[in-house]
Structures are given as C-alpha cells and as structure tokens.
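Supplementary Methods. Inverse-folding protocol.

Structures were first reduced to a discrete structure-token string of length 383. This string, shown here, constituted the complete conditioning input.
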C-alpha cells in the first residue's frame, strides 16, 4: 500500500491549508470563547465544495476519494476542530442518504446537502442510549399515511442548525437493534423541537443539542432503505465516520506539535531555548512519532475504503489510536508551554479540550477496543 498523496491530493491539501491559515486559524480561539456557530466560515467552505467533496458528481458533489476527505478534515481540525466536526456530522447524514436513499431521496435531500445549500445532522444517540445504540426508544409507528416518530435524541451535532436530519428510530421494538429504521427529516417538520447548544468542555462553537420529536409525521417515502435495516446502516455509516474522527484527531495532534516546536524554540530558561533540553526534545520526539503512526493508520483505513475493501476494524484502530494520541500530545504541549500552556494565551489548552472528545464521539475508546478485539478473536477462531 502506497501512502504517498497523489499530486492532485497534494494540490487540494495546499488549497485547504491556505484557506485554513487565512480564514480559520485567526478567529478559532475567539469563536471557542464566544461559543458561536461558525456560519461565516462554514458558508465559505460550502462554496469551496468541501461539504460535497466525496459525493457523486451527478448530485453536484466533488467525486473525490475518501483519502482526500481525510486530508481536508485534518487541515480544518489543525485550526478549528469545531469546524471540522460540523463537516463530519454533515457527512454522516449525506453519506447515509447517498448509501441507502432512493433516487428520489437523493435528488430531493442529498443534492442540496452536497451543493452546500443545506447542512445535515445525523441523530442516533438518545439520553438513555449512546454506546448501546441498539437500545434507542424513539419509536416510529406506521399508519396508512406514513410514519409517526416520537422520542428524544441527545448530543446531536449540527442539531439546531441543520436543515436536513437523518434520524434512527425503533420501528419494531420487539426486534431490538434489528427493529430500527432510518428516516430523513426536514428541519421544518411540525413536531420537531431542537434544544439549545449544550455547555461543553470543548468544541464550544460547534452545535450540539437535544431533539424532541412529538408525533413527527413523515410520508412513506422518508424511510431510508428497507424497514428495520436502520441499525446495520448506521453501523456502516459510523465505520466511515470513525476514519473522519481519527483524521480530526491527527489535525489536533499536528497543531500540538507545531505550537510546541515554535514555543520551545522561542522560550528561554537557564540561558538557553528550552528546545535544547533533552526532556523537551523527548516529548517532541514522542509526539512526532505518534503523529506519524496516527496518520498512517488513517491513510490505511481510508485507502481500504477507497479500494472497496473491508475497513471497519482498521477504522476503529485508527480512531482509537489517533484520538488517544491527540490527548497525550495535548498534555505534552501544555507541559512544554509551562504555566502559559495552562492559560488561554496559547491555543494548547483548547487542543486538550478538543482532543478528549475524539475518545468519546462516534464510539468511545472502550467500544473501539471491544470491536477490534471481537474482530481479532473471530479471525483467530476461523484460521
Ligand atoms: C460533542 C458531542 C457530539 C456528538 N455528536 C453526535 C451526533 O452528531 N450524533 C449522534 O447520534 N451522537 C452524537 N454524540 C454522542 C456520542 O456518540 C456518544 O456520547 C457516545 O457514543 C457515548 O455514548 P454515551 O455518552 O451515552 O456514553 P455511555 O454509552 O453511557 O458510556 C459511558 C461509559 O461506559 C462505557 N461503556 C459503555 N458500554 C460499554 C461496554 N460494553 N464495555 C465497556 N465500556 C462501556 C463507555 O465507553 C463510557 O466510558 C455526540 C457526543 C458528544 C459529546
């Protein structure tokens, strides 16, 4: 497997990098402080085509591969992870419609998401069911006119801003996870109430809300794919999503390393730049090595996906390693910055708050370890 980016991918990376330096980096700290949704920046990225990057050109998408997408996510997260996660959640919803929607659903709902006209959200988690997603209780009842959805969703990224939402609900509670279906819901639908942005440790300018669905009426044509196939669809969407979270973690780690090197060169102690002390050098060396390992895991998972091969286990490995590496690196970055690292004068404290979420969203580290171990045991048993 060759992990070198193609010329086209490198050019694209450069374009995103320049945008990020110019448009995202300068205001990221302030946006985090104010907790404002970054609509100005998102609109610019939508106009650049980033919100439709990997989707088919026939629906207005960029037709690019998944590796290119991970490169974009990494660059965005390097400056502002709140912007990166907005793209990740949007991509879950657009990806779900693209993979399982009918031609009509793709024309009606995917095309505006891909063109950047609309923003998407993807709602699986509930107040009582996160890791145990098969235990969701939002119910979908079918009658002659279509479906009626009732229940609560929680922690939904883009939940109050999105115009199009993909919502998982139990259409046959007796079947547990095997009785879940997926629906596409217009943000304006009667009966859908969206909560206020949650007060979070990090990702403060990203939108994370609870949703209330009270007798939300949907026509039959809003069911995505087959009835009772929603859980298995969601697991497939999450597998790809995890590569995105891993790429976001790589971006945060890169930012930690960049800031640490710059600071270590400038900061003087005992008459020397602290970069000359071995204790500091070892932290930088560990960060750089783990960053490389994380990025390679992301590239491998993305390459497998691009080649149409199985990638779920590799996606979990990439997410597990890259997200824990981001937290370790952010802690080291703060240590290298000394007391200043503990203040808002430098962005490294924000990186720590952002890194931690990568270990939780789209399946916690514990769940990734469980999935990887299951795969290993299966492989050993069948060999
Ligand atoms: C900022 C943010 C954005 C999010 N965005 C979205 C979104 O857009 N859409 C969406 O649907 N969800 C979203 N989520 C939800 C996220 O995916 C869940 O928070 C996550 O899956 C964990 O679920 P939970 O919070 O219910 O924790 P729980 O499942 O209650 O877990 C609590 C603890 O128990 C551990 N645990 C649980 N089960 C096991 C097990 N079998 N073995 C070992 N340990 C276990 C967990 O690892 C964790 O440490 C978001 C969450 C956050 C914080």
């Amino acid at each position: 497997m060759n992990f070198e980016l193609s010329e086209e991918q490198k050019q694209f990376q450069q374009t995103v990098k320049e945008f990020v330096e110019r448009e995202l980096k300068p205001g990221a700290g302030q946006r985090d402080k104010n907790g404002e949704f970054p609509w100005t920046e998102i609109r610019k990225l939508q106009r650049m085509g980033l919100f439709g990057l990997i989707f088919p050109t026939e629906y207005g998408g960029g037709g690019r591969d998944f590796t290119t997408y991970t490169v974009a996510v990494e660059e965005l997260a390097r400056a502002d992870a709140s912007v990166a996660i907005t793209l990740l959640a949007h991509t879950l919803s657009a990806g779900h419609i693209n993979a399982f929607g009918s031609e009509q659903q793709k024309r009606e709902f995917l095309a505006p998401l891909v063109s950047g006209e609309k923003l998407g959200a993807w709602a699986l988690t509930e107040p009582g069911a996160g890791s145990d997603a098969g235990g969701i209780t939002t119910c979908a009842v079918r009658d002659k006119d279509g479906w009626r959805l009732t229940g609560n969703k929680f922690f939904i990224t883009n939940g109050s801003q999105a115009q199009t939402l993909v919502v998982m609900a139990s259409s046959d509670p007796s079947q547990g996870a095997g009785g879940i279906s997926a629906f596409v819901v217009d943000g304006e639908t009667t009966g859908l109430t969206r909560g206020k942005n949650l007060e979070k440790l990090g990702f403060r300018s990203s939108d994370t809300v609870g949703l209330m669905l009270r007798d939300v009426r949907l026509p039959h044509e809003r069911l995505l794919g087959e009835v009772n196939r929603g859980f298995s669809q969601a697991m497939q969407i999450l597998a790809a999503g995890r590569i995105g979270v891993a790429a976001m973690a790589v971006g945060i780690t890169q930012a930690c390393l960049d800031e640490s090197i710059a600071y270590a060169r400038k900061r003087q102690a005992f008459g020397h730049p602290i970069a000359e002390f071995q204790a500091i050098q070892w932290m930088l060396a560990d960060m750089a090595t783990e960053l490389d390992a994380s990025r390679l895991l992301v590239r491998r998972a993305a390459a497998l996906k691009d080649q149409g091969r199985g990638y779920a286990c590799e996606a979990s490995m990439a997410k597990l390693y890259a997200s824990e590496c981001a937290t370790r690196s952010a802690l080291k970055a703060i240590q290298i910055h000394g007391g200043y690292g503990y203040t808002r004068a430098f962005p490294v404290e924000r990186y720590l708050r952002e890194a931690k979420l990568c270990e939780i969203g789209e399946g916690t580290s514990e769940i990734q370890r469980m999935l990887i171990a299951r795969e290993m045991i299966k492989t050993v048993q069948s060999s």
